């Protein structure tokens, strides 16, 4: 995939994941994309600490779905 440096890149990655039957990773990435869009472009709405934590968890879940051997080292 050639990076276009536009918002469409995320859509391409999501479609590619779905085409390759990586549905859970695609769904999580799509949700993370929507959360980022809201945080970036709907500035009148505050992002709570819980939403921030959820975004981090989604990113970690995506990483795990794409590489099951990957683990978070918290030390």
H/E element order: HHH
Number of domains: 1
Strand portion: under 5%
Mean pLDDT: 83
Query: Major β-sheet, in short?
Result: none
Shape, per Cα inertia axes: flat
- Stretches where pLDDT is under 50 for at least 5 consecutive residues are none
General description of the model:
The structure is a single chain. The protein is an all-alpha fold and 75 residues long. The protein has one domain. Helices cover 65% and strands 0% of the residues. The longest helix has 19 residues, at 23-41.
Give a concise summary.
With 75 residues, this protein is mostly helical.
What layout of secondary structure does this protein have?
Layout: H1 8-19, H2 23-41, H3 49-66
Helix pairs in contact: 1-2, 2-3
Attribute tags:
75 residues, mainly alpha, flat
